[in-house]
Amino acid sequence: MSRRMRTTALAVCLSLAVGLGAAGPTAGQTGPTGATGPTGPSGAPPIPITVLHGSSGQAVALVKVTIGSTTGLFIIDTGATKTLIDRRAAARLKLAPAGKLRRISGIGCTQAAQPVHLDHWKIGAIDLPPEIAASSRFPLAHGTPILGLLGSDVMAHFGRVSIDYANSQMVLGA
Fold first, then answer.
1. Would you say 124 and 65 are in contact if contact means Cβ atoms under 8 Å apart?
2. Which of 38, 86, 117, 130 has its CA 20 to 30 A from that of 29?
3. Which residue segment(s) compose the domain that 112 sits in?
4. What is the mean pLDDT of residues 91-105?
5. For residues 105 and 136, what is the distance between their CA atoms, to the nearest angstrom?
């Protein structure tokens, strides 16, 4: 199997990362800043996304996420139960560990992941609540601005998420 095929297989495996634990907010955490209830901010403006299309009709949506003062792209992956950040990015951002090394699983693979605290982060102008993310090897991040996968653990805070591939935009909670 070629290196490219192995990298693609690992990326598919990671796209459904599960099993890290502490998936939801802890007691005392609230939804996104400005939230007006379980569906998030009312009248939220569309957030620009980048949509990449493959030669066989596949599409991937990317969104800019800011962590502290660093902005990078995350793949929007509503099928992933847990948000994943590349371990090199987590180290550069000095994200604090949130427990012991754990195993995460996806389609056909399992690998080690370090739970980390994601604080002071946002999508567009929307502040996101603190989250425990999985920090692990993310092969697509090498040499690209892709920092990780934005999973359903984060999207669920908004109640409703609309991804408009044709117009390259996403609406959270509207």
1. no
2. 86
3. 3-172
4. 88
5. 11
Structure tokens at 164: 């408009």
Count the neighbouring beta carbons within 10 Å of the beta carbon of residue 11: 17
**Residues contacting residue 23 through CB under 8 Å, at least 6 positions apart:** 81, 82, 132, 153
Q: In this structure, which amino acid lies at residue 165? A: Y
> How far apart (Å, rounded) are the C-alpha atoms in residues 116 and 75?
18
Residues in the chain: 174
Which residues share a beta bridge with 125? none
pLDDT at 61 over 90: yes
Cα separation of 50 and 113, whole Å?
27
Instruction: Give the separation between CA 47 and CA 54, rounded to whole angstroms.
Output: 22
Half-sphere exposure of 16 (CA within 13 A, CB side): 10
pLDDT at residue 111, as a whole number: 78
Q: Which of 99, 78, 122 is nearest to 20 (CA)?
A: 99
Predicted TM-score (pTM) of this structure = 0.73
- Whole-number Å distance between alpha carbons of 19 and 107: 12
Is the backbone of residue 107 left (phi > 0), alpha (psi -120 to 50) or beta? beta
Say which CATH number the domain at 42 has: 2.40.70.10
Number of domains in the chain: 1
**Count of CB atoms within 10 A of residue 44's CB?**
22
